[in-house]
Structure formats: structure tokens, C-alpha cells
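Hi R.,

As promised on Friday, here is the backbone we talked about, encoded as C-alpha cells. Could you run it through your design pipeline when you get a chance and send me back a sequence?
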């Protein structure tokens, strides 16, 4: 019964050790500043501004905030002060009431206004309060009109504003949990708290600058803005903003209003009217008229969590309600989306999140046509080719297709001329259904708009459709999917024998296959890889050797079978070395060197000549299986016994030089004579 006590103590120890992100960053700043004395924190200051940040490890080495350079300064950690003549910050700040503490921590303007508004007696007296005190710079940043409206009526507006910055209990940074709300001392209106993994804490999107300053009657946190009450949901923000009129119409048509009115913590990247106007009218009408595409478009603008601008000090990836991701970052004072500074107005706070106005529409792949996907990617030249061939209608409508589009590098020497043959070839780059590459399987058959059947080959390091291998991740559009492939596809036109007969380079090989009785094998359904010697290869054989082969059908068949493997290997599957078992039985070694396929270390003349039952490589030499290569004694087979005697002879010479080995040699020789019948 007593054993659980150590476990309880361990759990308590772990709980105590689990610091909040803010405390972790503060601890790192302490470690970096300790060489300057006790309670010194390293602070990164953005050059040219007064913005300071406690540093984490990554920022320490990068020396950048939002892509801008910083300098390191050293100052007293929160709650401590310098002592003349001593190193560091050895003294704790004197503990006094909240009113006095405001003057010590850099919020003397808040102290002044609390005096004017008659809040001073309350924050000097007994109790337990937390105040999120705007810094002096925060008050100075208010417009003259806003500040005048507060200060001119000190007994009401200013007091209410200050009480909205207060909570009637002591709340430290460890208690400021991400996504929680605190009831303020002004009509219990909520204050939104966000505590981000990078250590930044925001209060209604105002950043905590100096935290956890203890007072006799509470705690003071200094923030970088004067915060205002908010009672509108995200949906109400949309309804009241004139610049979001088009968005308002789109939200109503997509039935997303209820979501944007519900409880939660979202970030809406709200496209302005200007953003919608930048989109081609045809594209916009298509999306607005398609409920599914419209919903995907809007969900792509909604992040799953509230992200205040002050929390973004470097790039990060955020997930949208649509299931996609956006790269959210910053460049100086500007927020960026996918690397572009398109956020026009940031941190419009709502009760269920935050709204940033964006001046460009973010169209997800799922709302685009496959033609639009191709135009915007590394296959834009292919898109132009399909347009020239008059096939773009298949890629812009509601037809379910998959486009196999060669990457731009395939056309580095220019686009091919469009004729009937090229148009038919391009039709065979469009598969009749919308596919996902991760669900393709080896041997799968795909039907094209050109009425061809394409095969899928799955290899360890690649996924190929006929001779073309997928070069990038899929892009899945509204009705079509884009597969970027590494070359133009060449659909098969006949069996291996059909292809060889149709190519004059292989006339000698065709005759040899017929003489060896292999025609039927290479005509039947199968999965062959054929390394086909050209006429030139046979002509290069030693004089009389080919005639000798032709006179021996069995030996000819043996040689030819060594050129055939019973599996399909296209060039895109060869990364380093691949070993294939030939029909003759010996192994073939296929490798890639300088972007050229090699068979048994010799380069091939042409790769990936596709057939319905295999693939052909043209080679300018005749491959020789191991058993057919010349031996040391001409045509005589190697004799294992002879090799043993050679070794025995060598051992004899050694034994003559070393008397200790002589008996061993004699015994071995006697045993060998016994086994060989007294040779």
C-alpha cells in the first residue's frame, strides 16, 4: 500500500518541471545571459525598432525576427533590478501594490490614467487582481481621436477601458492557457488568451512584453497594445464590413454562416472585394456556381486555430478547414501567406477568433480545373501543348480525368508540331477517370481518351505508367487530377515481335528469333524486358561466329534467351543497380550512369520501346552469358580436379621451404589420389 507514494512524488516532480512555452523561452534567455551576472536575460531587439523578444534557441542562432536582423542586448529579467557596483541584477524589485508596480515596470501612463479615472484606490488597496497594463508606447500609439474620447470623459470611458484590462484574481503566465478566456472586471466581458508554442502570449492579440511582475495585491503583465472590448462573431464582422461584401454573398451561398457564428477559435483570412475582382470573371463564376468548389474555397481561408499577428515571428505551416496547409510568415511588419505580403488589415478580433483581411484570393487545388493546375505548375508547357491541340475542353469541364503531363524540361528544345499523330498521342495522356497515385497498383490497366490501355508499374523507387514515371506529387483538382511525369508517354503498339518486325534495325534479330523457335514466346501475353541487339551488333561479332550460331538452334536460343528477362523494367525504375534473371538463367545487371541505361556495364542505344507484352532496349552488341564466354583452355570446360592439383602443386613448393608443412602436404596428396582413382 505504501508503494504508490514514490510514483506520486515522481508525478508531482514532472508536473513541476513542465514549464509553459513562455517560461521555457524565458529560461533560455536566462541561460544566454548568465555570463553577465545573476538574473540577466538575453533579449533580441529588432534593428530600427523598439521591439524586443526573449530568445529561443533557433532565434538565438538565426539572429532574425520576421526575416529582419536583430541585435542581442542584456537586461534584468522580469522581477529583478540592478544594484550599483554589483554585477548583473542581484536584487528583486521591491514588492508593493499594483499602482506602485505600474511605475516600476514601464507602464507609468497606465499608472497616470488609473489615477485620473479614480481606479487608483482600488489597485492600491487590498485584494487580488491581475492587470494587463499597456506600455507607455502602446498608449502613445493610439490615434488622437481615440485617446481624446477616453481621456475627456475620465469617470466613465477611461475607467471602463482600464477595468477591461483587469481580472479579479491573480493570474500568472503558467495559468494563461492557449485558447482560454478570462472574465474582465468590466461587465465580465471576455479577454482572449493565446499562449503559442514559440513562447509568445497574447491578450486580445496584444503581445505580453513583461510578465509576472508580482505585487502585494496581484500581478502586473505589460502588453504592447491598448485592448478593446469585442462582442462580434466572425460572421458579424463579415456582415458589418463594406469591403467584405462579395465574401458575405459567398458565405451565405455556402451555408458557412452557422460555423462562423459558433463558438470556437478560428482565423479567417477574409478576401476583400478587391481580391475577388482580381480573379478572371469566368473562373470566379465557375466557382461561385459550384457549391462544392465554393465551400472548398472558403474553407481554405479558415485556419483551425486563432493566430494573432504578434505570434508570427517566423514561418510556420497552418492547417485550414479544407484540410490543406498555408505557409504563414512575416517580413518585417508585414504578414505573408505562402511567401506573399497579401494581408491588408490584421488582428480584427472576434469573440470566436480573429480576422485578417487579404487582398488576394487563395484558390485551393480542389477548386481548380486540371488545366489551371497545369498552367500554374512545372508542366505549364504541356498545358500550352494541349491547348494548341484543341484538347483543353477535356481539362476544364466536369469530365472526370487524370492528366499525365510531361514536365517542362521535356520540351527544352521546343514544343512538338501538332498534327493528327501528335493529337492522338496527347489524347493518350488523358486517362478516363480521376485517380490518386497512392492507390495505383502494379499491373493496373488505365483507359485513355485515345482508347489505349496503359499499364501501371510499381517499383521500389518509382511509380510509372508505361515508360513515363511520376515526377511530383499529385495535384487533385475539382474534377481532374494532375500527374507530372518525366517524359512523353509512348503507348504500346503491338507485341515484342510486332515491334521488332516493324523496326528495320532489328531485321537480323527477327530472323535469329525465328530460327531459334522463340517467335511464339515473344508474341504471347507476358511481361518481358528485351535487350535487342541491332543489325550493327550482329555485324560486330567475330567472323564466322554468327554463322556458327545460326547452325546450332539450341545454342542460338540459349544466347537469345540471355537477352530476355521475364519482368518489365522501364528506365525510370533504374536508380543504381538492378539485377534481372534472364530466361537463360544467368543474371543481367542493369544500371544507370550519366543518365544512360547500361546492361552488363555497356550503354544501351535506346530505352523504353514499349510493347503490349514488355519493353525493348536497343543494344549495339550481343550479350554473352557466363557459360558461353571463352575459357582458359579454348573450348575445353574447366576441370575442378585440375584446379585442385594446381593448388596442391603450389602447396608442395611451400612445403619444401617449410619442413613443418611437408607431412600435411603428403596427407592431402594421398587423399586426393584416393578420390581420383589413382590419377
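Update: got your reply. Pasting your designed sequence below so it's all in one thread:
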Amino acid at each position: 500500500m505504501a508503494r504508490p507514494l514514490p510514483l506520486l512524488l515522481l508525478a508531482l516532480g514532472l508536473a513541476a518541471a513542465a514549464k509553459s512555452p513562455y517560461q521555457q523561452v524565458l529560461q533560455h534567455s536566462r541561460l544566454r545571459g548568465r555570463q553577465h551576472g545573476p538574473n540577466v536575460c538575453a533579449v533580441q531587439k529588432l534593428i530600427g525598432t523598439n521591439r524586443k523578444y526573449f530568445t529561443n534557441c533557433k532565434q538565438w542562432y538565426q539572429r532574425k525576427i520576421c526575416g529582419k536582423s536583430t541585435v542581442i542586448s542584456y537586461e534584468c529579467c522580469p522581477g529583478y533590478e540592478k544594484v550599483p557596483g554589483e554585477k548583473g541584477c542581484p536584487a528583486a524589485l521591491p514588492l508593493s501594490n499594483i499602482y506602485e508596480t505600474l511605475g516600476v515596470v514601464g507602464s507609468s501612463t497606465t499608472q497616470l490614467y488609473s489615477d485620473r479615472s479614480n481606479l487608483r484606490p482600488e489597485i492600491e488597496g487590498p485584494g487580488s487582481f491581475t492587470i494587463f497594463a499597456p506600455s507607455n508606447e502602446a498608449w502613445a500609439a493610439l490615434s488622437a481621436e481615440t485617446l481624446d474620447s477616453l481621456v475627456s470623459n475620465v469617470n466613465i470611458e477611461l475607467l471602463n477601458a482600464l477595468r477591461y484590462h483587469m481580472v479579479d484574481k491573480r493570474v500568472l503566465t503558467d495559468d494563461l492557457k492557449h485558447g482560454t478566456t478570462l472574465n474582465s472586471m468590466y461587465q465580465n466581458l471576455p479577454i482572449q488568451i493565446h499562449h503559442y508554442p514559440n513562447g509568445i502570449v497574447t491578450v486580445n492579440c496584444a503581445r505580453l512584453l513583461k510578465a509576472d511582475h508580482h505585487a502585494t495585491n496581484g500581478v502586473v503583465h505589460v502588453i504592447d497594445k491598448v485592448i478593446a472590448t469585442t462582442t462580434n462573431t466572425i460572421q458579424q464582422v463579415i456582415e458589418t464590413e463594406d469591403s467584405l461584401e462579395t465574401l458575405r454573398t459567398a458565405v451565405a451561398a455556402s451555408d458557412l454562416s452557422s460555423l462562423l457564428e459558433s463558438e470556437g477559435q478560428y482565423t479567417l483570412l477574409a478576401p476583400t472585394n478587391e481580391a475577388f475582382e482580381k480573379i478572371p470573371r469566368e473562373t470566379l463564376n465557375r466557382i461561385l456556381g459550384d457549391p462544392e468548389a465554393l465551400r472548398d474555397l472558403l474553407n481554405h481561408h479558415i485556419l483551425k486555430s486563432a493566430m494573432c499577428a504578434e505570434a508570427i515571428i517566423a514561418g510556420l505551416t497552418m492547417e485550414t478547414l479544407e484540410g490543406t496547409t498555408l505557409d504563414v510568415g512575416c517580413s518585417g511588419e508585414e504578414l505573408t501567406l505562402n511567401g506573399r505580403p497579401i494581408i491588408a488589415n490584421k488582428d480584427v478580433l472576434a469573440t470566436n477568433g480573429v480576422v485578417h483581411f487579404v487582398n488576394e484570393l487563395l484558390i485551393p487545388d480542389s477548386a481548380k480545373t486540371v488545366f489551371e493546375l497545369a498552367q500554374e505548375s512545372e508542366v505549364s508547357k504541356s498545358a500550352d501543348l494541349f491547348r494548341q491541340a484543341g484538347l483543353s475542353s477535356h481539362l476544364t469541364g466536369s469530365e472526370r480525368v487524370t492528366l499525365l503531363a510531361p514536365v517542362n524540361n521535356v520540351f527544352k528544345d521546343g514544343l512538338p508540331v501538332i498534327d493528327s499523330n501528335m493529337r492522338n498521342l496527347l489524347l493518350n495522356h488523358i486517362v478516363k477517370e480521376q485517380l490518386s497515385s497512392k492507390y495505383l497498383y502494379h499491373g493496373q490497366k488505365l483507359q485513355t481518351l485515345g482508347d489505349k490501355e496503359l499499364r501501371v508499374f510499381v517499383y521500389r523507387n518509382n511509380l510509372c505508367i508505361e515508360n513515363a514515371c511520376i515526377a511530383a506529387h499529385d495535384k487533385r483538382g475539382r474534377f481532374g487530377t494532375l500527374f507530372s511525369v518525366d517524359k512523353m508517354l509512348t503507348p504500346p503498339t503491338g507485341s515484342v515481335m510486332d515491334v521488332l518486325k516493324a523496326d528495320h534495325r532489328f531485321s537480323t534479330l527477327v530472323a535469329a528469333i525465328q530460327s531459334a523457335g522463340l517467335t511464339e514466346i515473344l508474341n504471347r501475353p507476358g511481361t518481358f524486358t528485351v535487350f535487342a541487339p541491332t543489325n550493327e551488333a550482329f555485324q560486330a561479332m567475330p567472323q564466322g561466329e554468327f554463322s556458327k550460331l545460326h547452325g546450332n538452334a539450341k545454342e542460338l536460343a540459349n544466347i537469345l534467351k540471355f537477352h530476355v528477362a521475364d519482368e518489365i523494367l522501364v528506365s525510370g525504375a533504374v536508380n543504381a543497380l538492378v539485377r534481372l534473371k534472364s530466361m537463360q538463367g544467368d543474371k543481367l545487371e542493369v544500371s544507370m550512369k550519366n543518365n544512360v541505361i547500361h546492361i552488363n556495364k555497356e550503354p544501351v542505344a535506346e530505352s523504353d520501346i514499349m510493347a503490349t507484352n514488355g519493353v525493348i532496349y536497343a543494344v549495339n552488341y550481343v550479350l554473352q552469358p557466363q557459360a558461353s564466354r571463352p575459357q582458359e583452355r579454348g573450348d575445353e570446360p574447366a576441370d575442378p580436379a585440375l584446379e585442385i592439383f594446381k593448388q596442391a602443386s603450389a602447396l608442395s613448393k611451400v612445403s619444401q621451404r617449410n619442413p613443418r608443412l611437408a607431412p600435411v602436404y603428403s596427407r592431402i596428396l594421398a587423399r586426393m589420389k584416393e578420390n581420383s582413382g589413382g590419377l
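One thing I noticed while checking it: The radius of gyration is 39 Å.

Thanks again,
M.
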